[in-house]
Amino acid sequence: xxxxxxxxxxxxxxxxxxxxxxxxxxxxxxxxxxxxxxxxxxxxxxxxxxxxxxxxxxxxxxxxxxxxxxxxxxxxxxxxxxxxxxxxxxxxxxxxxxxxxxxxxxxxxxxxxxxxxxxxxxxxxxxxxxxxxxxxxxxxxxxxxxxxxxxxxxxxxxxxxxxxxxxxxxxxxxxxxxxxxxxxxxxxxxxxxxxxxxxxxxxxxxxxxxxxxxxxxxxxxxxxxxxxxxxxxxxxxxxxxxxxxxxxxxxxxxxxxxxxxxxxxxxxxxxxxxxxxxxxxxxxxxxxxxxxxxxxxxxxxxxxxxxxxxxxxxxxxxxxxxxxxxxxxxxxxxxxxxxxxxxxxxxxxxxxxxxxxxxxxxxxxxxxxxxxxxxxxxxxxxxxxxxxxxxxxxxxxxxxxxxxxxxxxxxxxxxxxxxxxxxxxxxxxxxxxxxxxxxxxxxxxxxxxxxxxxxxxxxxxxxxxxxxxxxxxxxxxxxxxxxxxxxxxxxxxxxxxxxxxxx
Length: 503
Fold this sequence. Notes:
Blueprint: E1 31-43, E2 48-59, E3 66-69, E4 73-79, E5 82-89, E6 93-97, E7 107-116, E8 129-132, E9 135-138, E10 159-168, E11 172-175, E12 178-185, E13 188-199, E14 206-209, E15 211-217, E16 223-229, H1 236-243, H2 246-257, E17 265-269, E18 278-279, E19 286-287, H3 298-306, E20 314-316, H4 323-339, H5 345-355, H6 378-395, H7 397-410, E21 414-416, H8 418-429, H9 434-442, H10 449-454, H11 471-475
Parallel strand pairs: 1-10, 16-17, 20-21
Antiparallel strand pairs: 1-2, 2-7, 3-6, 4-5, 4-7, 5-6, 8-9, 9-14, 10-13, 11-14, 12-13, 15-16, 18-19
Helix pairs in contact: 2-3, 3-4, 4-6, 5-6, 6-7, 6-9, 7-8
């Protein structure tokens, strides 16, 4: 028998989830990660991924064992150098029991050796790893990490990243941040990427394939790396004509949101046929080729880059706070429409309000707490942006734009809730705003005509609402995020159904 110290009874397992009511099994308790070092090797022909992940973490309790969110096959786990025992549980949990329990506040180094074929793994009936003709892509929301690295998969635990990937010569590996170096040896090329600012796990991305890569610098001095799959076919020109404007759009957004928060910019378009969405992966958004089916789509670039502030710099505290990401990214598209002379934010708000009757299910969704089944419902975007126009009309442009700029600074590299935003807006404007937010974000019904008038949202009576010129472009980036979840998220409403989605 091993001698067990008397205090061992005080050590307990970390929780299998971080405590998010929308996704109770996502994330984990008992520790906080500060850095991920991922050293990977990927074979595009077979979709085989081999890796060693090194996690630097600190315990937040006296810890007897802990979980990682992960799906691939693990061959060894070490905790502070000593071999740890491990087993899988639930749909996506790796349970790790270190050789000796870990006191609270201990720095911990966890090394996980693993391999597997990401596209062969499913959890909850879906996969977030997209196979392409020349490789694969990890990108999805709210979960993508499990298919390529072990993690504490929740926005509450942000960390910095080093992602080093070896691929056969002729292929490239695209990830977040800056490309530190590349090297070639014995038929393999290794790409070393670094994200030096805190990044949520769902915002980490990996794409392997054959890309045309363009590099440049924004006018404000941020280095840009864009990548386009060589086999985008007819979508190639439109994709490139849109994403090459990334620097221009990011610089324009700084006027509204403050300085660009990271040291890299870009976007990538892999040849994913089964996905239609775009995703704000940090510094380098993922765009589906389908976003460019009808020609250039700068509006989707505006949306994903707006997320670098609203969603990436300031992340949700819980997934119910998704409005702070999506309502603001959609509102940025409205501001861009105004910038392009294709309809003002006011005209777009009036149109959303007037074009959807009170009995449309759109108004049943509460953007301030939509529920997991409606997390990416159109209402979170359009009703979410409408709420911002109502706020703007209530408090005036000076305070409104001060809030848009001040909020990302206030919570930089952290997390925040909708409630905290409401209190921040009250503080900056000096007005009570709880009733306004309740009407526009929390009531499962269309705001009444008097409420609309009070917020200077004009309900046009007796006439068909006039559609702003930018509406179709914005709607082309629209719709619900179709997760490929087995239970199937409801896909938009009415005339929006045919459109692809964006995060």
